From TrEMBL:
Portion of the full-length sequence here: 42 to 339 of 463
Gene Ontology BP, a term: xylan catabolic process
Keywords carried by this UniProt record: Carbohydrate metabolism, Glycosidase, Hydrolase, Polysaccharide degradation, Signal, Xylan degradation
Protein name as catalogued: Beta-xylanase
Active site: E232 (nucleophile)
GH10 domain span: 8-297
Family from the record: Belongs to the glycosyl hydrolase 10 (cellulase F) family.
EC code: 3.2.1.8
Statement: the UniProt record of this protein carries the keyword Ribosomal protein: no
Catalytic activity: Endohydrolysis of (1->4)-beta-D-xylosidic linkages in xylans
Enzyme class: hydrolase
Amino acid sequence: GTTLGGAAAETGRYYGAAIAAYKLSDSQYVGILDREFNAVTPENEMKWDATEPTQGQFRYTGADQIVSHAQAHGMRVRGHTLLWHAQQPGWAQNLSGTALRSAAINHVTQVATHFKGKIYAWDVVNEAFADGSSGARRDSNLQRTGNDWIEAAFRAARAADPGAKLCYNDYNTDGVNAKSTGVYNMVRDFKARGVPIDCVGFQSHLGTGMPGDYQANLQRFADLGVDVQITELDIEQGSNQATLYGNVTRACLAVSRCTGITVWGIRDSDSWRTGQNPLLFDGGGNRKPAYTAVLNAL
Ligand code: XIL
């Protein structure tokens, strides 16, 4: 293949990018998107604050623009994200207990229903585990509604859109460590009890190194019977950026249930990691050495 998406498709995978609806009028940006990528993730447009700014009043303008663009260009859409402790609307931040639980499940149902049939995979729940050595859930307003909030969200998402793959997504879970093992134990428990979960997303916001057991970690999740995806890849610019991008690509390809990779932005100037130049294209839209390393590895 001569493009990222084309090369990934040769093994049945996708190569995606996080995109912003307001940039769809930037011809350089859209030119790269349409040439190189066969999947997209809305960077912010499907989050709770964007889709339900007032309780019970849903707004899908930006998200619908992205989904329309994807459909017109044959790209898969990763829905991101139904429930997360961050980027909640103020009204939700001010709820707790059964009022918050009902609002959260209603949010899952409404948003998943709106996009029914159009989403390849939903990040149903994002970042619900704590950093550090506890392997425990993160404290959050959602967690305080009861430990079963995650499975309740997955069941509601399945009921609303049975065709979408349902993922759990997190960061600092890219190697074998206490946090990823906490997620692993949850997924194993969900599979044992029939809670609907199909995939696990590994954000992979990497610095200038990566865990030596990156591939082994993907494989242990795949062995539980879920797909795995690299969902928000970006790698701090350093002398080894291209090498690391190649290594991540090869790790995914070595795991048969690793179904795709998404980079968290297109050009360095689009990145949320200001000044770290962590993406595959420079600010002028030119392919970087990291791009060539990925293409050669696919
Ligand atoms: C980031 C976006 O890139 C920014 O534009 C926004 O201001 C904050 O969120 N983990 C996630 C993503 O799951 O949703 C975050 O995206 C980056 C970290």
